[in-house]
Write a structure and sequence with these properties.
The structure holds two protein chains of two kinds. By secondary structure, chain A is mainly beta. Chain A contains no helices and eleven strands. Chain A has strands at 3-7, 11-12, 18-25, 33-39, 46-52, 57-59, 67-72, 77-82, 91-101, 104-113, 117-121. In chain A, β9 and β10 form a beta hairpin. Chain A is globular. Chain A starts with a strand and ends with a strand. Chain B is an all-beta fold. Chain B has no helices and nine strands. Chain B has strands at 9-12, 18-23, 35-40, 47-50, 64-69, 72-77, 86-93, 99-101, 105-109. In chain B, strands 1, 3, 4, 7, 8 and 9 form a six-stranded mixed beta sheet that branches. A three-stranded antiparallel beta sheet of chain B has the order 2-6-5, with no helix packed on it. The radius of gyration of chain B is 13 Å and the shape is globular. The termini of chain B are far apart. The chains are: A mainly beta, B mainly beta. Chains A and B meet through β9 and β10 of A and β3, β7 and β8 of B.
């Protein structure tokens, strides 16, 4: 049974870089799409971006200039970096696996999620 | 990309049916049959309930169904149960090959 676990600092200062890692256990990181999704406290979901195990990426246009998602297949991990953060980046950050069905894998669907990690941007 | 539009809240009594709408544009909901719905209970992670407008993942109750007309997709829950009380989010693939979520709808079972 696949499990995803987010890790990283819970507090980041304004203008600095938010860095999170998602460790995947119980399955190989290969053959799937891997996503970051965030949810500000009391608000809705926002897709941040995805990376395919091959290294191809796609980002939310509203965050594109500040986001980088990388994959490390040797460690079965993928990571998120968000630069120049402000208070509006305060959110629960989830990593999630793209859904696969019938031999096809999709970047736009998520079937397994980490428990999330709350990141607060504050001085 | 702008968030898809959902009603902030809907409610229904046990046994009834409710429908949650999700309105986008021809660049997302209207342009592709790639609308999904997620259920999120308080303090829990979202769960995929419907994908590709009307398909159900294995294990999801057939009380949940989806449809689409033009730029608006809908999630219908029939035979409403107390455990259905949750937040529901739609999402859609976009013409930019990205993903956009709706603002979420809080379902209250009276």
């Amino acid at each position: 049974q696949v499990q995803l676990q987010e890790s990283g600092p819970g507090l980041v200062k304004p203008s600095e870089t938010l860095s999170l890692t998602c460790t995947v256990s119980g399955d190989s990181i290969s053959s799937y799409y891997w996503n970051w999704i965030r949810q500000p406290p009391g608000k809705g979901l926002e897709w941040v971006g995805y990376i395919h195990y091959s290294g191809s990426t796609k980002y939310n246009p509203s965050l594109k200039s500040r986001v980088t998602i990388l994959v490390d297949t040797s460690k079965n991990q993928f990571s998120l970096k968000l630069t120049s953060v402000t208070a509006s980046d305060t959110a629960m950050y989830y990593c999630a696996r793209g859904f696969c069905s019938g031999g096809n894998c999709y970047s736009r669907l998520f079937d397994c999620w980490g428990q999330g990690t709350l990141v607060t941007v504050s001085s | 990309q702008s968030a898809l539009t959902q009603p902030a809240s809907v409610s229904g009594s046990p046994g009834q049916s409710i429908t949650i709408s999700c309105t986008g544009t021809s660049s997302d909901v209207g342009g592709y049959d790639y609308v999904s719905w997620y259920q999120q209970h308080p303090g829990k992670v979202p769960k995929l309930m419907i994908y590709d407008v009307s398909k159900r993942p294995s294990g999801v109750s057939n009380r949940f169904s989806g449809s689409k007309s033009g730029n608006t997709a809908s999630l219908t829950i029939s035979g409403l149960q107390a455990e259905d009380e949750a937040d529901y989010y739609c999402s859609s693939y976009t013409s930019s090959s990205t993903l956009v979520f709706g603002g979420g709808t809080k379902l209250t079972v009276l």
